[in-house]
Amino acid sequence: MDNIVSKHAGGLAKDTALDRRDDGCFHGGAFFEAVGEGFDDLHRRHGVINADVLDAWFPPAPSVIETLTDHLPWLARTSPPTHSAGLLEAIGRVRGVPQECILPGAGSSDLIFLALREWLTPDSRVLMLDPSYGEYSHICEKVIGCHVDRIRLERPLGYRVDLDLLTERSKENYQLVVLINPNNPSGQHIERDDLERVLTQLPAGTRCWLDEAYVEYAGTDQSLEEFAAASSNVFVCKSLSKVYALSGMRAAYLVGNNEVVAQLRKLMPPWAVSLPAQVAAVRALEETEYYAARHLETHRLREQLIEGIEALCPEGKVISGVGNWVLWYPPSSAAVTASEIIRCCRSRGLFLRGFADAEREPGVDAVRISVKDAETQEHIVEVLAWALGQEQFLS
Ligand SMILES: Cc1ncc(COP(=O)(O)O)c(C=O)c1O
User: Fold this and answer.
1) pLDDT tens profile 336-373
2) Ligand 1 touching residue 239 (CB < 6 A)
3) What class has domain 17-59+289-393?
4) CATH for the stretch 62-286
5) Distance, CA 237 to ligand 1 centroid (Å)?
6) Does pTM top 0.85 for this prediction?
7) Which atom of ligand 1 is nearest to the CA of 133?
8) Domain boundaries, given as residue ranges, for the chain
9) Could you tell me if the CB of 183 is within 6 A of ligand 1?
């Protein structure tokens, strides 16, 4: 584990980035304020726990590291294959989908911005879940300017998705239905067969964007990539960031109808995926056993984190799903609120993410904490315990 010290993390900032929403979408990643975005001393990362992003707690497979290390000077100075042909071949072979149905990109954000801006206009109507990954409302409402309807997921129901409601609402002639499965931030997963049943009832003119960034945590058999490749209107967006421990590399792909994918392919710039990212992704895709073992371990670690938080604060509530994070609702009787806890923790180098039950309601209802290795999680619980008693620092 990284040696956790707080001296690099700065003081208890009055004006944290907690509620910052500029003209871009709000994301985790505030930990870079402590590391330094100018990268002048990357050792500062040892003083930071970045539990505000859902990056993997485990390293990339050893073969990925070995290849990157052995060839780094060449990888850095060499132009990559123009359209990621080797990566395309590896995805097709490993995930069982025809290559003409696959479009690689520099992270799913790249693909989201490319496809949605091509498919939607200000007159379009889009349906999505709430809460959900904020980038989708950002691009639909703030970038494209289209109309978004939301299906509200309720905390007392553990944010479970009502499939009958989803099926019915999806038939209301939307241009796009956006689903994230398992959903971030609620963590709930819809079983593959159940989701397939919903998607087969979509009107022909409605496309579904199915974001499977975390699907491996739900099981190796849960992806709808093959289903999407055979359908005319379902598109799976698969990030390689989170479950392959490649967030810094920027690699992802879209799977769907070959004709629609061919249209999008024309809009993808050459060399979109960097050479280190292409090489790392190809190696990672081969390492099925290594990653499956890490995904299984994640469930054990998540339980350990939940036990630690519940022991610390039995009156609070933890909601978790299948992903590599938990949502913690500190009790209303606590001396500090969720956002105050987040501010306090930052002063000790622990970065957490605020979570709001509903996107349009201001305020922070809970703290989202990502799963880390066992030792780091013990430290997280210690810092949370300290933060719960920090009322006097916050006035
Ligand atoms: C649901 C979801 N989709 C996509 C992304 C972004 O992934 P990428 O790194 O591939 O751009 C995230 C990142 O947090 C996410 O949670």
Assistant:
1) 899 999 999 999 999 999 998 887 777 888 999 999 99
2) yes
3) alpha beta
4) 3.40.640.10
5) 9
6) yes
7) 1
8) 17-59+289-393, 62-286
9) no
